[in-house]
Design goal:
Blueprint lengths: L1 E6 L6 H12 L4 E6 H5 L3 H14 L1 H5 L4 H5 L3 H16 L6 E5 L12 E5 L20 H13 L2 E4 L2 H9 L33 E6 L7 H11 L7 E6 L10 E4 L3 H10 L2 E3 L9 H8 L4 E4 L4 H4 L6 E4 L4 H13 L1 H16 L4 H20 L1
Parallel strand pairs: 1-2, 1-3, 3-4, 4-5, 6-7, 6-9, 7-8, 9-10, 10-11
Helix pairs in contact: 1-15, 3-6, 9-13, 11-14
Length: 373
């Protein structure tokens, strides 16, 4: 079989991880990879239209350059421009058997061919998060395009169960067309040999680039309160680069994936109190590393964290609830070590990009055969 693999961009390392597993799981499939963003970036008129639309809709955010590319590439103008690029690629590849698109920022459907989408989110799934500001909602015309794209897909493969739920509740798909296929770890953490068992120290690790959305200020508030009872607790921040006193936290900034492994091997607890989190792969990476987690009860975390067994779940945005969870974690070092062992076992049985690829291919083969019959 011949297939188009249409991607917007790197997708937080996801494309680079899942595509090799798809190739390994079925070497008979010829994958033709096209990055649609790169095509649009060479079209100044399309970029100008997207930028103008973003500026008119969100002038303050654009003036601050707050997620500027994200704002521009989530406009109707950008959707239409990228869809046109995708259709050009499809026209140049008439012999393909199916299309697999990652994320949903354009419509990559090829007429008469099976069409699949692999995504961590839907736009309307934002409504499941209390912290979501409806003022940030995309234009109705953009949402209508997203809805039509999902309606035209044979199946939409998702990372997390709440995304399947959104596809059913918000977009009208039947549950069988929105299968949960899971995700894997971008930093290879399942083979980490820890320096010491969790609970032997009091080191909290945070990894996340978007400091505000990932709940960084909530974590600093909680740790400040925690130090009243646990004065020797350490906080290490990677990814983001907030301006904090060294007495509050050790700020590493952006680090390579190999350094992520090192930091997880030294930590006792992983904590990322996100306000909005579609999948939270880094939480899964932590569990695979045998590192217990303290995470908000939302999004993909609800799929793979069993509260009180493999980690702690707390009310999102509640610094006092987070403080209580962290205090409980450090009050029982033996339990913390046991949670690390249980957490690792719980995710290694189901998760991993190889398993995700195999689940997708099972559906793809069946649907391609059915459409050809």
């Amino acid at each position: 079989m011949k297939a188009l693999f249409l991607e917007y961009g790197p997708f937080s390392h996801v494309n680079d991880k899942v595509l090799p597993e798809l190739k390994a799981a079925d070497p008979s499939i010829e994958w033709r990879v096209h990055r649609i963003r790169d095509m649009v970036m060479k079209r100044p008129t399309a970029l100008a239209r997207a930028g103008l639309e973003a500026t008119l809709r969100r002038p303050v955010a654009v003036a601050k350059r707050a997620g500027l590319e994200g704002l521009a590439f989530r406009t109707v103008a950008a959707w239409d421009a990228m869809t046109a690029c995708a259709q050009e690629v499809i026209a140049q590849n008439p012999d393909i058997d199916f299309v697999l698109e990652t994320q949903t920022l354009f419509n990559g459907r090829a007429a008469g061919k099976p069409f699949f989408i692999f995504t961590d989110h839907t736009h309307m799934a934002n409504l499941y998060f209390d912290a979501y500001d409806p003022a940030n909602q995309a234009p109705r015309a953009w949402i209508a395009r997203e809805k039509a794209c999902y309606a035209q897909a044979d199946r939409v493969f998702v990372f997390a169960n709440h995304v399947s739920r959104s596809l059913v509740e918000h977009y009208g798909l039947s549950p069988d067309r929105a299968p949960h296929v899971g995700l894997g770890w971008n930093a290879q953490t399942s083979d980490i040999v820890r320096e010491r068992p969790p609970g032997a120290g009091r080191r909290i690790l945070f990894i996340g680039i978007d400091w505000e959305r990932k709940g960084g200020p909530v974590l600093v508030d909680a740790v400040t309160k925690l130090r009243t009872d646990v004065p020797d607790v350490e906080l290490v921040i990677a990814g983001a680069n907030p301006d904090l006193d060294p007495a509050v936290a050790t700020v590493l900034g952006r680090i390579p994936l190999e350094r992520v492994r090192e930091e997880m091997a030294k930590a006792d607890v992983f904590c990322m109190p996100s306000k909005i989190e579609p999948a939270g792969a880094v939480g899964l990476e932590s569990l695979a590393a045998g590192l217990p987690v303290v995470l908000p009860a939302l999004g993909g975390f609800l799929d793979y964290v069993k509260d009180g067994e493999t980690g702690w779940l707390f009310k999102p945005g509640d610094a006092d609830a987070l403080t209580a969870a962290l205090k409980d974690a450090f009050s029982h070092p033996e339990r913390l070590a046991e949670m690390g062992r249980k957490g690792r076992a719980s995710v290694l049985g189901y998760y991993g990009w190889d398993k995700t690829a195999q689940r997708m291919l099972e559906h793809i083969r069946r649907d391609v055969r059915a459409k050809a019959a």
